[in-house]
Amino acid sequence: CSSLTDVVGGSNWRHGGSATGMFNNCYSLVVAPWMDMSGATNTNNMFNNCYSLLSVPSYTLTAVTNAGTMFGNCYSLRTMPKISLPNTGASTMGGLFQNCYSLSEITGGLNIPYATNTLQLYDGCRSLQSIPDITSTANLTATNQFFQNCSKLLSAPNVSNTTNVTSTNAMFNGCNSLLTLSNRSDMVFLRVYLSI
């Protein structure tokens, strides 16, 4: 689908199913269609490599367990509405926004109560200056490269409940503009990151 620029209407995932790689490598797709994603169980690579994608609607992913690299390499994506994963078993979210170079704003927070894998979640989001709070993170054990190469990031978001985090390799690597780590969660991250 490398020449696909627009999708009229969308799919209905209300009753379950996988949307893995649905628009993967649709290099020319500009606007993502609204879809009822409430029953989708897997959105891995759904919009991966959609280089021209400018916007996506707000999706509620109530049944998703794997959202890894859902928006990976969406170089042109500028804003991201709230992606709601309320009370789901979404455990894999690695690279969810990886290399979204133009992403400058994320509205709403990220509620990820069952996430265990968030490696490279915002890696390469070099236009982001701030990131909303990330809540319900009790199951997180590793945040490697979480904010890596967010070169314009001025302050890290509040990340609740980081008591189980044991690995933060390269978490702030390349965050050359980072000015503040002000809350307790950031301090926990920093302690692990610096092994102190």
Structural summary, described in words:
The termini are far apart. This protein has one helix spanning 184-194, and strands at 79-80, 105-106, 110-111, 134-135. The protein is built from one helix and four strands, in the order E-E-E-E-H.
SSE layout and pairing:
Blueprint: E1 79-80, E2 105-106, E3 110-111, E4 134-135, H1 184-194
Parallel strand pairs: 1-2, 3-4
Structure at a glance:
The chain is mostly loops and 196 residues long.
Tell me the strand percentage band. under 5%
Q: What is the approximate shape?
A: globular
First-residue to last-residue Cα separation: 49 Å
Q: How is the biggest beta sheet arranged?
A: 2 strands, parallel
Structural class: little secondary structure
State the strand order across the main sheet. Answer: 1-2
Describe the structure using short key phrases.
single chain; 196 residues; little secondary structure; two-stranded parallel ribbon; globular
